[in-house]
Design brief:
It is a single chain. This protein is mainly alpha-helical. The protein has a single domain, classed as Growth Hormone, Chain: A (Up-down Bundle), CATH 1.20.1250.20. 79% of the residues lie in helices and 0% in strands. It is globular and about 55 Å long. The two termini are 26 Å apart.
């Protein structure tokens, strides 16, 4: 399937980077209650700090994407890992609101450099068109596997030691990313015309932002971020409010990660032969239906874990399809940057999902409004993907 050894290195390096960074980033929700109690604030403060993290990932994604397109994905990835480590370690030192927010600014910016914009761009340039969406699904599946492996590990470390020491241990785990960041840059083996013609950065962006399909895709991606950040940040606390066992929170997030391995691989496979935008319509519609059913379900250990498993199948399966459509429409040369701007929209949604989750909880004393918002936005995103045209534009990139 992947004939060149350097292509395999890009995929392996991308898998390790996403496995570690996703696993640690999706552990953030486990720290909502202990950090909020430590600095003696309501949940809105922590939710806002994580929202800032998500926003910085979005802001950093087109920046690191442009660095990757110009200087190579390894350079962007290495700088990203450095910021990631600094921000993560600062989080273990939090003693008030200011340091909490500052740590998330630096951590979020670092996540952008070793996250999907850089890695999916590197894989998109290294893998032939025939198997491209599947390869993108493989690296996203690795990120989800990291969520399955690292989130419960973080939960165990919090219980066995304390939340500060657990973050320090996560810093040591993160050091492995430095080694694999250097494998991300390789020559593109694509044989098409998409890398032959020079085009200025401004003309690339102008072409993208007047393209109706790119605009709709970017707007729809906002909803994915809203869903993911709300659940990842607030689900453990929501389950704790229901007096469910402590392990349910971490293992729910872990199950989401595990089943998303299958979801991203399957939808990545389908995306190479089926309409990517139609698959996205199905994904967002199913998410909305699942949230709607969950609202009315009795909340027990069994129903929560089933919900988590089903949501996992739909969790980040949107990413290889979304990035795949961008590659089809515009080609691979500026894929990292163009996906980075789409991902900025995703992270603005993440900002809203995380912050509003805490804000509305502190105001109403429950998460009910947020669950209904997830239902409405899911159906709205499905509608937005209907008019998207997946055909390539004239080869200028």
């Amino acid at each position: 399937m992947f004939r060149h050894s350097s292509t395999v290195l890009v995929i392996v390096g991308g898998c390790i980077l996403l496995l570690v960074s996703f696993g640690i980033r999706h552990s953030s929700g486990l720290y909502l209650i202990p950090i909020s109690e430590h600095i003696q604030t309501g949940r809105e403060v922590f939710g806002f700090a994580i929202a800032i993290q998500f926003l910085m990932i979005g802001i950093g994604s087109p920046i690191f994407g442009a660095i990757a397109d110009k200087y190579g994905s390894s350079v962007a990835g290495l700088y990203g890992v450095i910021f990631f480590l600094i921000g993560l370690y600062m989080m273990s030192l939090v003693d008030g609101t200011f340091l909490l927010i500052l740590s998330q600014i630096i951590f979020g910016f670092g996540c952008a450099g070793c996250g999907t914009a850089v890695i999916l761009g590197a894989v998109g340039k290294a893998v032939t068109g025939k198997n491209q969406t599947l390869a993108l699904g493989v690296v996203m599946a690795a990120g989800s596997l990291g969520q399955f492996l690292i989130v419960p590990l973080a939960g165990i470390m919090i219980e066995l030691s304390d939340w500060q020491r657990s973050i320090t241990y996560l810093c040591f785990i993160s050091l492995i990313m430095i080694l694999f960041a250097v494998t991300l840059t390789t020559k593109s083996f694509k044989s098409g015309n998409d890398d032959k013609t020079a085009q200025s950065l401004s003309s690339v962006l102008n072409e993208a932002f007047i393209n109706k399909s790119y605009v709709l895709l970017t707007a729809g991606f906002f909803v994915c971020g809203f869903h993911v950040s709300f659940v990842a940040t607030h689900l453990p606390a929501y389950l704790d409010d229901l007096s469910l066992p402590l392990w349910i929170g971490s293992w729910s997030l872990a199950l989401i990660g595990l089943f998303n391995v299958f979801g991203t691989l399957y939808f990545g496979y389908l995306g190479d032969t089926k309409s990517k935008k139609n698959l996205l319509v199905i994904l967002y519609s199913l998410r909305a239906l699942l949230f709607l059913i969950f609202i009315f379900l009795p909340k027990t250990e069994v129903t929560v874990l089933i919900f988590a498993a089903l949501l996992g199948i739909l969790w980040l399966s949107t990413v290889p399809l979304t990035s795949g459509i961008i590659s089809v429409i515009f080609g691979s040369k500026y894929m990292s940057m163009l996906y980075g701007f789409a991902f900025l929209s995703h992270q603005v949604g993440s900002f809203m999902g995380s912050w509003f989750g805490g804000r509305l909880y502190d105001f109403y004393g429950s998460y009910e409004v947020m669950w209904w918002a997830c239902v409405f936005l899911g159906f709205a995103s499905a509608v937005m993907h209907f008019p998207i045209n997946e055909k390539p534009i004239a080869k200028k990139i």
